[in-house]
Amino acid sequence: MSDFTSNFWPVFISVITLVGILACLLLLWFSGKARAMTAHDNTTGHVWDGDLREMNNPLPRWWVWLFVITVVFALVYLALYPGLGNFAGQLKWSQEDQYSREIAKGNAEVAPLYAKFTAMSVEDTSKDPQAQAIGERLFMNNCAQCHGSDARGSKGFPNLADADWLHGGTPDKIVESITKGRIGQMPPMAAAVGTADDVKNVANYVLSLSGSPHDSVRAALGKSKFAACAACHGMDGKGNTALGAPNLADDIWLHGYGENAIIAMVTNGKVNQMPAQGEKLTEPQIHVLASYVWGLSNRSQAK
């Protein structure tokens, strides 16, 4: 309820809840007091199937008391737990607090296991079979949704199993990326490059940097216009890990390959975000996860 900007909805929900409970009590009371008009044999006069007659017997006592117990339980629950608008309940219970306590309990139980690995470097941890099994589970639960179960990524999601790193592939950088997340932003550059024809020329020049098929005439014309991109990608197009600017001189294309894909990128720009995991995972968990990720692209050293 804290997300509402006024008190109307919390009050409205509280009123509806209490009125519903009161209505149940009134219905119970009325059904016990009201008397239908009956014949001398205590039937209401309603007949079905020729001889099936409706009796006017009172509700069974056990049924009535179950109804009363249900209403009492509802009132006690609403007094102890949140359910009436902004009222937090006497026990001050919340699902966020419950979740935090469960997570803290789980982390405390596995802390002795992780303590062994935190004393090791990322490189050494990547050689430990037990640590890698744990790291794989952490990866599947937290990273595979974007990077794939094999960590090879897909369009828009980096391949973590190669040696191409936007922000650097050292253990410290991997830990930093997992902990703090990353925001990659390329602004639309068409206006800085020039005309639509200039953008097409730049696209062909970018293709030429990696030896990809391109129009050599357009590439020659686009070289000077590439200066607008060099602030991030460098004059040689090999990128800048400090900025997260991709290397354009290799054959790895994160957001699509070919002239049209590059033109779209220059024209529209792109924003990518990797969410931070620092509040979700503990430092020991991040350490083991980083060792697993580092080992994917350094298999020869991780063995």
TrEMBL record:
One of its GO terms (molecular function) is electron transfer activity. One of its GO terms (cellular component) is plasma membrane. It holds the Pfam family Cytochrome_CBB3. The chain crosses the membrane at residues 12-30, 62-84. Its main location: membrane. Pathway: Energy metabolism; oxidative phosphorylation. It is found in: Cell inner membrane. Heme c 1 binds at C143, C146, H147, M274. Residues 130-210, 217-297 form the Cytochrome c domain. Heme c 2 binds at M186, C229, C232, H233. GO terms for biological process: oxidative phosphorylation; proton transmembrane transport. Keywords: Cell inner membrane, Cell membrane, Electron transport, Heme, Hydrogen ion transport, Ion transport, Iron, Membrane, Metal-binding, Oxidoreductase, Repeat, Respiratory chain, Transmembrane, Transmembrane helix, Transport. Binds 2 heme C groups per subunit. Gene3D superfamilies: 6.10.280.130, Cytochrome c-like domain (1.10.760.10). Its cofactor is heme c. Component of the cbb3-type cytochrome c oxidase. C-type cytochrome. Part of the cbb3-type cytochrome c oxidase complex. Belongs to the CcoP / FixP family. This is Cbb3-type cytochrome c oxidase subunit. It comes from Rhodoferax saidenbachensis. The lineage of its organism: Bacteria, Pseudomonadati, Pseudomonadota, Betaproteobacteria, Burkholderiales.
